[in-house]
Fold each of these.
Amino acid sequence: MGKIISNKEISPNVYLMKVGGNYKGDMGQFYMIRCDNFPLLSRPISIHNIEKDCISFLYEVKGQGTEILKNLKEDDKIILQGPYGNGFEKREGKIALIGGGMGIAPLFYTAKNLDNVDIYLGFSERSFLEKEYEGVCENLHIKIGGYITDMVDFDKYDYIYTCGPEKMMEKITEMGKDKVYVSVEKHMACGIGACLGCNCDTKNGNKKVCKDGPVFLGEDVYYE
Amino acid sequence: MGKIISNKEISPNVYLMKVGGNYKGDMGQFYMIRCDNFPLLSRPISIHNIEKDCISFLYEVKGQGTEILKNLKEDDKIILQGPYGNGFEKREGKIALIGGGMGIAPLFYTAKNLDNVDIYLGFSERSFLEKEYEGVCENLHIKIGGYITDMVDFDKYDYIYTCGPEKMMEKITEMGKDKVYVSVEKHMACGIGACLGCNCDTKNGNKKVCKDGPVFLGEDVYYE
Amino acid sequence: MSNMEVKFCDISFKNPLVTGSGTFGFGREYENFYDLSKLGGISTKGLTLNPKSGNKGARLYETPSGLLNSIGLENPGVDRFIREELPYMKKLGTNIIANVGGATMEDYEKAIELVSKEDVDIIELNISCPNVKSGGMMFGLDEVSTGKIVKKIRSITRKPLVVKLSPNAENIVRCAQACEAEGADGVSLVNTFKGMAIDIKSRKKVFENTYAGLSGPAIKPIALRMVHEVSKNVNIPIIGMGGIMNYKDAIEFIMAGATLVSIGTANFINPSMGEIIVNDLKAFMEKENIKSFEEIRGII
Amino acid sequence: MSNMEVKFCDISFKNPLVTGSGTFGFGREYENFYDLSKLGGISTKGLTLNPKSGNKGARLYETPSGLLNSIGLENPGVDRFIREELPYMKKLGTNIIANVGGATMEDYEKAIELVSKEDVDIIELNISCPNVKSGGMMFGLDEVSTGKIVKKIRSITRKPLVVKLSPNAENIVRCAQACEAEGADGVSLVNTFKGMAIDIKSRKKVFENTYAGLSGPAIKPIALRMVHEVSKNVNIPIIGMGGIMNYKDAIEFIMAGATLVSIGTANFINPSMGEIIVNDLKAFMEKENIKSFEEIRGII
Ligand SMILES: Cc1cc2nc3c(=O)[nH]c(=O)nc-3n(C[C@H](O)[C@H](O)[C@H](O)COP(=O)(O)OP(=O)(O)OC[C@H]3O[C@@H](n4cnc5c(N)ncnc54)[C@H](O)[C@@H]3O)c2cc1C
Ligand SMILES: Cc1cc2nc3c(=O)[nH]c(=O)nc-3n(C[C@H](O)[C@H](O)[C@H](O)COP(=O)(O)OP(=O)(O)OC[C@H]3O[C@@H](n4cnc5c(N)ncnc54)[C@H](O)[C@@H]3O)c2cc1C
Ligand SMILES: Cc1cc2nc3c(=O)[nH]c(=O)nc-3n(C[C@H](O)[C@H](O)[C@H](O)COP(=O)(O)O)c2cc1C
Ligand SMILES: Cc1cc2nc3c(=O)[nH]c(=O)nc-3n(C[C@H](O)[C@H](O)[C@H](O)COP(=O)(O)O)c2cc1C
Ligand code: FES
Ligand code: FES
């Protein structure tokens, strides 16, 4: 049980929420978040940042679950289960982090935990948190509208970590081949590998996004 | 859609909630209250008071619905449907208002709208709002534990208005006969007389608590 | 331009939204909330030949996203309906669906005979109320008894006849097929699911009848599946219902094959729900550039 | 002193709480959350003779207080279960219920033969999975096919045999009676309800199989009613389930006649739910001065 420290709308419909407490987690991992009995299922949200006494989440309001999150105020209670999943690994070399839409959420903490990264963020209408992302990388590139991939020189990097719309990640995988690691999104019920609901079809057979992922080698994933 | 002005715990598990706006209502009427999609049904809560720019409700936290109410904070939204029901009538003469437990809730606004009333409040463990009730009646009598009926000289009054546990209201009806008007509680779905769910068996046939009541002549009601 | 009009049993409905039997009385309780002529139609409280005072004891119990009810068909009886309620309803400017229940075949017959003489648009034969002991539902549990009663009723009324099916039926598809075979003009589904609740403190069942009828969003996924299954297996039109709370749910039922959609429990959540959903359906059609509901009906 | 122990099919369960097939894997995912020996038992993921990779496309969809799933019995097959999972499970210190499904009678027979040789406490014959096309559920839809498969399986195993019934059966009571008649030692109910969902934006069904299985609190009132009906009509013991989210729900099922109670979806809401409910049940017994669950079982 955590307590909300703050929960601010930083861009239309996008919120940054801080929850007090000493939470753990690696880059690219997520928490299952819920408030009460309703809605039934917890919502998977990536770790956006972990600081000494708080963890933060960056989320977009989509439906009922995030609508409830958005209404939380200071001191309100929240239930966080996690950290779950296999996130981005710490690898040597020059790394590009490419985020599209809310896929930018996990990249902040990821950048913070890696040296030598460039960040590429693609937004559809307006950008946000530029300052913050700038503080955790060598070079920040922002694109509003269009294809973020147009900005990336794939040869410059040893690894590409990406999170965002499936179409974007598929494209990046095509371009970056075996350098690319993608963070996959699926509807989840348990978050711990028990329900087999978050199945991702890969070259190595069925994988559970919540437990084997959410991060996979891009070329292993069969995109839909 | 109303906005919470304040929502304070005035005694363990008992809350006084003020909602801003120009609400209407007569003594003994109620509102159907809800916040969101969950729980499914709205909760009937009596008008505790109506002031120039706000309405207040006095409620005890019992289950899921009131649990959600209790967590509301200033500026939170709430949906009020009403005022519904036939409440206490304005009658001439000396009137005793007898409340037991949360049955005291509607008696404040009732007293405010009547002249020449005495109030009797029975609490099981501890009393609250004595000052406030004192301000709207001639004599306030409080009993903690035991039978509130022991304190009432029924002959002194032309009418008795009561709200509280059914056993108490039944007893009062026995003692006060045709002077007694009771405010009945039933589970409700629609609050407007459409679902036939809040049936009260009376000498005049089936009555809907939400529409024909909640206030009935005590002697007409078949207690369960 | 989008046109919300739909034909159902050759009758024109200004839009596909009707209100469900037993949740809308005879309309009176809602008249102060919105102009009821906005509705496609109103299905009356379930009528029986003689007045019924309904069930004793608890009649309502809330469950997660659901409502158990055990009203027990409290109603003024067909006579008083005709005398006191129908004249009022006729003035509302919307189609009237007379929902008729019964305990015996004879009751059904007499009630239907009486109602048939009146100016109602559709008769909805309720063989699916789980809340009266010797009542309706036993007729609707299998296709043989369903076929039998529909045949009989068909022979005594020329009104458009819609049969309200029970989700507790052994096989709702076969029941619907029996209705079609015996000449029903349409089916409506679903009525409430038989459920129960226990008060663990008092160690007693909540309802005197033990079982009660479950409605509301909890049942929607099952109701939708039943409408879909039935629509793939009969050619008569369907009034779809069960947990519809907003226009999106209504569209799901239409895509699953319903011609009309009905809201029950939703009326309790907000008495203006009928108007809200009609407006939202209109807006949806326009946004999605749907000219007529035929375009999306049964596309799944 | 309250004693939580219950006997089920002559086997001692340290308490009545078991975890439902398909919601608890083989236990591994939960071992870090609590000591699984606290559980009365664990029902394994549904096993089939050969490994199954499960369904393609969307497998989950949330509904109001419910969950639609279309996993499609993804499982490693009986062989690998016996080699890789069972040895692990045996060390957990709780009863093992092997849940076995199949597409053909032959598959069922072979799978059961293999499992019967192993050290599992109970075999749960799953004839009620709505998510595999030619799969289990068709065996469980009526009492004739139910009786047939139970008879066959009974003849090839001496293990305590529990049959998992479908709420989609034409008549679940008659199915349970058929199980009893053919020598089943118990029945477990309910499996998921056949439901569906439609994505109105894309105008497509959500699940490739069209229909999926509904679980969770939404179905509780109906599941409880089914357990109650069955318990009044058979003499073999019941594992009750369907929407149990807390000890109160569990007690309702016991009062309705269940000997064991099972939690499925609840495990997803909180991975420690099993432990929480066991503790709460214990506290409830003590507070209510219940010495053994027999005192309250089936009292409604
Ligand atoms: C590993 C992982 C990490 C995520 N991290 C973030 C993040 O940091 N910030 C953020 O804004 N979003 C994130 N998402 C997506 C987020 O989980 C969904 O937007 C959210 O669940 C929508 O819930 P809702 O109630 O608002 O929407 P609804 O549409 O009402 O949700 C209904 C159901 O669908 C599920 N669902 C809906 N959309 C998605 C989706 N895109 N992915 C998974 N499940 C979905 C919900 O969990 C719920 O079960 C992440 C998803 C995954 C799988
Ligand atoms: C006309 C009327 C006026 C009321 N005025 C007040 C008031 O001013 N203050 C106050 O504290 N309480 C009042 N009540 C009682 C209040 O409605 C219930 O305590 C409340 O609904 C409980 O909801 P819950 O979700 O907390 O409890 P839960 O037990 O979770 O509720 C489950 C369901 O049961 C119904 N329910 C439970 N208890 C009652 C009850 N005693 N009466 C009616 N329905 C019930 C709920 O409405 C809901 O549908 C009034 C009831 C009625 C009928
Ligand atoms: C309180 C209540 C009373 C009902 N009475 C009737 C009735 O008299 N006749 C009938 O055919 N259906 C009756 N129903 C069933 C509804 O018309 C509808 O079929 C069912 O509630 C499912 O729809 P919903 O989930 O939108 O409520 C009743 C339902 C409720 C909740
Ligand atoms: C994701 C999921 C997978 C399931 N898999 C199986 C299965 O393999 N075999 C089986 O007999 N039941 C299976 N079930 C049904 C559950 O065991 C249980 O009967 C049902 O979910 C109702 O209980 P609940 O509401 O507590 O979840 C599954 C249920 C869910 C939600
Ligand atoms: S969410 Fe249950 S296995 Fe991944
Ligand atoms: S609550 Fe519906 S008639 Fe009173």
Note: The CA atoms of residues 73 and 105 of chain B lie 21 Å apart.
Amino acid sequence: MASSVANGGGGHDALRFYLTKTAQFVIVLATTLLGLVAVTFFIGRVVPIDPVIAIVGDRAPAHVYERARQELGLDLPLIQQFWIYLKKAATGDFGNSVLTTNPVMTDIANAFPATLELATLGTLIGVILGIPLGILAAVKRGSFIDQFVRVLGLAGYSIPIFWLGLMGLLVFYAKLGWVAGPGRIDVTYSYLYTPVTNIVLLDTAMQGQWDAFWDAVSHIILPACLLGYFSLAYISRMTRSFMLNELAQEYVIAARVKGLSEMRVIWRHALRNAAVPLVTVIALSYANLLEGSVLTETIFAWPGLGQYITNSLQNADMNAVLGGTLVIGAVFVLLNLVSDLLYRLLDPRTR
Amino acid sequence: MTKPLLDVEDLRVRFHLRTGTVEAVRGVSFQLGRERLGIVGESGSGKSQTGRAILGLTPPPGEVTAQRLAFDGIDLLTASKRTLRTLRGGRISMVMQDPKYSLNPVMTIGEQIIEAYKAHAKAGRNEARDKALAMLEAVKMRDPQRVFSLYPHEVSGGMGQRAMIAMMLVTDPDLLIADEPTSALDVTVSMEVLRILDELVSERGMGLIFISHDLKLVSSFCDRVLVMYAGRVVEELEAKNLREAKHPYTQGLMRCLPTLADDVRPLPTLNRDPAWAL
Amino acid sequence: ATPPDTLVEAWKLDEIISLDPAELFEFTASEIAGNTYERLIGFDLKDVSKIHGEVAESWTVSPDGKTLTFKIRQGKKFASGNPLTAEDVAFSLQRAVILDKSPAFIIGQFGFTKDNVKDKIKQTGPYEFTMELDKPYAPTFVLYCLTSSVASVVDKKLVMQNEKDGDMGYNWLKTKYAGSGPFTIRDWKANEVVVLERNPNYEKPTPLARVIYRHIKETATQRLLLEKGDVDVARNLNPEEMAAVSKNPDIKTNSGVKGGVWYVGLNQKNPNLAKPEVREALKYLVDYSAISDTIMKNQAEVHQTFLPKGFLGAIDDKPYKLDVAKAKDLLTKAGLPNGFSMTMDVRSNSESASIAQAIQQTFAQAGVKLELIPGDGKQVLTKYRARQHDSVIYRWGADYQDPNTNADTFAANDDNSDNAKAKPLTWRNAWDPGPLTAKTRAAVTEQDPEKRAAMYQELQKAVLKDGPFIIMMQEIEVMAMRKNVEGVIIGPSFDTNFVSQAKKN
Amino acid sequence: MLDIQNLQVVFGTGRLRVDAVKNVSFHVEPGAAYGLVGESGSGKSTVLRAICGLAPITAGRVRVDGAAVTTPRGKAFYRTVQMVFQDPYASLHPRHTVDRTLAEPLSIHGEKDAEARILQALREVGLGPSFRFRYPHQLSGGQRQRIAIARALILRPKVLLLDEPTSALDASVQAEILNLLDDLRRRLGLTYILVSHDLAVVAHLCERLLVMRHGEAVEETTSVALRSGAASNDYTQSLIHASQGFTRAVRPSTQALAG
Amino acid sequence: MTGAPLPLASEPSGMRGWLLSAEPNSRWQARLGRFYLGWRAFTRNPLAVIGLGIILMLILVAVFADVIAPYSPVAGGDLRTQRLLPPSGTYWFGTDDQARDIFSRVIHGSRITLFVVVLVALIATPIGLLVGTVSGYLGGWVDTVLMRITDIFLAFPRLILALAFVAALGPGIENAIIAIAITSWPPYARIARAETMMIRNSDFIAAVKLQGASTPRIILGHVVPLCLSSLIVRVTLDMAGIILTAAGLGFLGLGAQPPMPEWGAMVATGRNYLIDQWWVAAMPGLAIFVVSLGFNLLGDGLRDVLDPKAAK
Ligand SMILES: Nc1ncnc2c1ncn2[C@@H]1O[C@H](COP(=O)(O)OP(=O)(O)OP(=O)(O)O)[C@@H](O)[C@H]1O
Ligand SMILES: Nc1ncnc2c1ncn2[C@@H]1O[C@H](COP(=O)(O)OP(=O)(O)OP(=O)(O)O)[C@@H](O)[C@H]1O
Ligand SMILES: [Mg+2]
Ligand SMILES: [Mg+2]
């Protein structure tokens, strides 16, 4: 999405350039979020689930039901409800979740770090393994290793994640006992540290609870590897295709003409260039992991955002759904921005 | 002339493709001393592939064979990868056609020159830097300091081409292959570039293979010319004698150009004789 | 592995929305309340007809049957250290009525309203209070209602300390604890965990220091955790998983009959289903025993009347079994010899989906084409409550241990119009039970338990014969647990699964 | 036929502003051929593109056949003026056969008799009917340029704008195309505007020419003057000089003409 | 290229020669020739051929499902004796919890899968293509507005949007398809836009403009065909994702209705028996895997043939 602008200009111009960029970004963020809210909000209202039941339950007498309905403001016209929601949302108040009774933001502050932790680790695994594999496949195009990477990647695209997840648990947890089971940390350790960031690995490490830390590691490793595998599948394939593209460029031949070693040609020259579009791919795959880990979270009893939103949706807990969607939307836009910035950093042509 | 710098005999480059095998270069032989050798021919006649085969940079499906392919007595066909690497860029260099594509877009020009230098000379960062700057100056760059830290997209085609030359000459090679170094440039700029190459040959005693499709240019710039057609050398002659070429192909090429000097109408066109390709 | 003094249960916890006894109504929250709060009255888990005082020491009923006087046990203390007195008990009941949340009707149905409850439920001494009813209800009915979790005793002092804007501590107690039960609630993280901890002030300290309920949605995950010993009890295993783990020498299973029944509701707005012959024919088109022996093995047993076993007056008649020929006869009589088409709303991802598919098969044998419409729990419910279904497969759980809870919904319908206030199951299926409504109302005030039981038997038979409900099975709850766990009690209702005496060897 | 007065073309605004053409005027008689020469980026192509509406006219006037052009150009304009592009590899749709490429203008303008006219157009540019169903990748560069010319001619325009029609081609092919253009002009009475950086090509085809630099007109001259080496302007001189090939020492350009 | 043709080692002749002729005599021959060249490029990639084989198999199986399947895909057997039987000579893939033959269900499920895949492709591709090309060709505020909308749909958690749509429209395979289609067009729009931006300034577009072609004509006749190939490649590569999303919806109970033998729904049921009665989930899971793999391999192969940039 990077809109490239010709370079040059003095400090004043550069300043103005960044100001326009910032303004543009704010507008993009605002309109995207507004669109997200609007779409979610109206979808939420046409969903044929009565949100009142979620609060009062099935057995509630009629008057209890009516009162709850009014408290939710469901008797107002749709547009008015939306307006009220927007006004509150602007002040950071996304209402309370019906299901958990907490303010939605509190819930998200709890659930999001769990997802973040998992997705980040997953992406790291995907990047660390996926890029070298992709490079190898590109350099040895058509060889056994290339086919292997291709099939590995294709399998990653095609295997249902819940199947792989359960099989992973069965083998590595139940049979082999190499990793800990579902959940973020064992109950024994869960009260040894105080949640600060809600990212268990960080919290335990910062508080020096190393036993708890290692326990958390052994819990996260399997789901993270699983997500990592899916991200690896994507990243390695994209790396391969970008590298093939770069390796066919004239400047690579020029680098060889200079007498550089093949390693240097590949890593310093081709990869540096392939890294530019790769950044976008990694950001995208990261965003996908952040939003798409619903099933993984279910299987690994991971109290993350994906589960939270799905669960809320099924219970017509619209405040929670809206809040969660907004957060994911914002993350998406933010990741876009970050990859945009990195893009600029890596590619002098867009500076 | 003593021992030739480059000795090529029966060089062949084949590409095995789906549609069959294409022989891009078919039995080219020549010897090169410390002189300017031009290779001309129309598009697809195998000029570039000849140049690349010498450096061992024929792209993947290609296959290179030759009776003899020796540089300064070193057999390039049997040389180890390591030897080839030290030769490449060190003693043989190549200036490529289009600076827009041949310079790494994400590295500054200075970095790329330094990299070339350090690949062959044990030198510290500062020494390499000085050398690079000196080189930029040698190719008549107006503000070497500034150009040093520019990225390829920030310089014009002419500057890029000169930077490319600087990069390829920083190691003081004995042989330079220049593959259409000026065809992407304006007439006025290309004259400047040629002047630089010319000086290098006459002052350093470097061997130069100058690939071009511009007969007029080659005849005025080089000492000796190889005329290629369909992968073969159809004629080899002194540049100044190009007007007296024997081969009908060379003659045709010379005549079909419009000139300011006289107004021929219609222009003579080339009637290809299948026999030329044999 | 789990610590020796801690019991860890894997359970689907995502339905908890409140821990306030005046509000909580879901199975999970009720069970937690049962282990952490004390109620006025309790019943014998083996024989539900035997009632005893829990916080109440004794009670008397006035001759006109309208006033009950309760004496409270002395010397009890809340977990907070505050003493438990009649003031707390009266406050708890009043609070439930005033807050008027979903379960409030269980107490409210005796004529208490926001405005009069402070007069009708009165503290008359430090350890004595009275309840004044609007009608002379059957005393057993009243007492059974007081066994439900809405009658839990909360710590008035503590709750009122946390009152805000006259909410009687509602917003605080939603997530906190103010009781006197064997365990205290230490922590609740929505969709993640509920942690109970031993209440040191409880008269009989629990063997376990801690009980942890972990939210595990996937049953397969629950199973793996159990087999690996990372949880002690798995609550939601399906029949196959149950069968598999029971082969494991480290694991045992415990089961108990529950008050829930599985039924198919037939909407009487559908002209075909409104024909009595069709209703009866469909009752002959379900393979009750095959379903309960396979799909619902260990989860339910065949039961066809609306009162679950163990309830006052419950009968266990099972007149229906799969009989395609008879069903075809009945359909022919109804003028539908070639069968007909109908839909059934089903909650996806639950046992009901499997049962529904089995029913679909047997219906088809008599030419009844059943189209299943899967939906989310809440989605199916919304449709059901709007009477937009043809048929629906659902489970009904008793709200309290008195037969009225089921009779009221299966056999009575005061107003069958579209905008009726009350929405019992009869209404939802647009069925007017005629004289049965009056009989149900009469049974509630019948003072003689035997006569009362007979009335309910009559009601059950009538609904069994003619009602728009294919009642199929009564629920069984099975817990799979590690061998070393002992003393986990599975009571007859969902709030009587007790862990207070559980221990691990 | 074609009259350009004070043409100015500006791209972008502010920091990105490029003054591609500044105040250029020239006039072309019907049936004449007019050349534009100059170094890369001097605005030659932009003048052509401005005439036919592919670049904005910021100021100035363009008259075709006595009438000022409208924006957007009407269909009648396109029947009068057509253009041939520099790169024969980029100017043909890679997925369309020659047949489809040539049929397109006819169908846009609702012309009948497409069949015959396509064959005739192919004949005119010296290609046989066997080329009709080929795809561009099955054609050589010279053949492609012929197709591009055929496409431009099929609507029978009066003016042909030629943007370096031979610079991407080999010398021998260039000769063929130049001969073709020469021939067509004579037979069809076309008016040409030819852009090239090769002075010899311009001199070969055109009677008059305009030398451009940095978007400005440097001088207008004739090919006769060019051949005699008479150029009043230094820049034109240096262009003439450079087109003679490489010279070791910098010498006055007139001497090189003999070689 | 001009110049002398380089001699080929062997000249094509006969049928091949006719197809590869540099001088086709008719539109048909030209088209067939192109197709043949593509086909040859395609068949040089054995994995792609395998992929094509799988897809053809899928189509055949779907067409002849009635003939192939030994049992009814919906009617179950005796719950007491035929339930959850492991794979055997009678029941090749075993039976499920309703005592139905899994093999027959998988066979019949191919129809649904094919239906999903084809319909999603037919809905999402044109939307994406149209939005992308219009946005890329016209630019300006049209581009801004369309791309903002695309962004919104792109930033939406995909499964959530699908879930919401299914919830709004009611469960069922058709609605699941619409939901998936609605969530899958944005990337296509982006690709088409990028492609369009690259070609909109090219000479051949300028050339048709100079012939007075209208904007719709240029977009439909000239821009769309060029975007199509990279889009087709992308769509084929996405097929696996589409099947899996459909499966995901089925998994959440929002896709096909029971007893429809939709693979995703079957896997979802099988999840309950995953550890001991592995075949219930594994068989339809394997089917999903094989078909996705087929589409992916095919897409990969097509990329080499159709996408001129990727071809080397
Ligand atoms: N990678 C390759 N695969 C197949 N054929 C190739 C490959 N590279 C070059 N060729 C063929 O080899 C022949 C010679 O190519 P070469 O690049 O040497 O031509 P050239 O004389 O440099 O032409 P130009 O003036 O256009 O650069 C051409 O016919 C070309 O098609
Ligand atoms: N669409 C455009 N937007 C911005 N600047 C442009 C655009 N088109 C051309 N220019 C600029 O206008 C100037 C003149 O370009 P033009 O293409 O007319 O040059 P030219 O003389 O044809 O050069 P060449 O010989 O390289 O074709 C150049 O600086 C170019 O960068
Ligand atoms: Mg070349
Ligand atoms: Mg130009």
Note: The pocket of adenosine-5'-triphosphate (ligand 1) is lined by residues B 15, 17, 22, 24, 41, 43-49, 59, 61, 213; E 6 (CB under 6 Å).
